[in-house]
Specification:
Elements lengths: L21 H85 L2 H12 L9 E6 L6 H11 L4 E6 L4 E5 L2 E5 L1 H16 L1 H26 L1
Helix pairs in contact: 1-4, 1-5
Length: about 220
């Protein structure tokens, strides 16, 4: 009895029912190699894409942190600038008001009489003539000043005016000079120093709060 011969089935019928063409085998092998290479290349592309995506994410975080730091620095600079600007504004405004009040007081006849009385109290020769040099801006109240001086001083009084802002008193060898400008500068400086200490503390408090806000903001960037 003849043996059963196993039959091979090929995608393409054997040449003349016996053989497969050699170039067909080569083509099948070539296509399989291409497929393997394509799969490998696809894996490499995916891997490279994942690495690139991770790098981009890191860069984005780093750039975002740097931008956040820049924003925070700008924020703290704005806070500090605002507090310093507010302090300077109120100090300037207060100084102006203080100077205005002191200027009115200094130029008031009653104030001038107090200054003159203090000076005259140290003079032991009442019979001596008093020479007074007033700023020309006081000329409009000449009558009032002359009347007050005659009441306070029994001796002779000579009143003259000059273009300077100072008051000059002379009696014999005794001479005194009163400068409203210097008085206002000195008084204003003293008042400002005493009055703005609380304001300085408030502005320092604002600065501390700004720094705390800055630190808190930076912490949120690192979370």
């Amino acid at each position: 009895m003849p043996k059963e011969i196993q039959t091979n089935y090929f995608p393409q019928p054997p040449l003349e029912g016996v053989l497969i063409k050699q170039d067909t085998i080569r083509k099948n092998y070539y296509f399989r190699r291409l497929e393997q290479q394509a799969r490998q290349r696809a894996k490499e592309i995916i891997k490279d894409a994942q690495i690139e995506a991770q790098e981009l994410q890191k860069n984005a975080r780093r750039e975002g942190f740097q931008q956040g730091m820049l924003t925070a620095l700008q924020q703290i600079a704005t806070y500090l600038s605002d507090s310093n600007r507010a302090l300077a504004h109120w100090q300037k405004k207060l100084d102006k008001q203080v100077r205005e009040v002191m200027s009115v007081s200094v130029n008031h006849p009653e104030t001038l009489m107090l200054v003159l009385d203090e000076w005259l109290s140290g003079i032991n020769t009442p019979e001596c003539a008093v020479h007074i040099l007033f700023p020309v801006s006081m000329k409009h109240i000449h009558s009032e000043i002359a009347e007050r001086l005659n009441e306070e001083w029994g001796g002779m009084i000579h009143i003259e005016y000059h273009s300077e802002s100072t008051f000059v008193f002379r009696c014999g060898d005794d001479i005194a000079e009163f400068s409203p400008v210097a008085f206002i500068d000195s008084g204003s400086c003293k008042i400002m120093k005493e009055s703005t200490s609380d304001m300085n503390m408030d502005c320092k408090s604002i600065s501390r709060e700004s720094v705390e806000n800055f630190i808190t903001y930076c912490r949120t960037l690192t979370d």
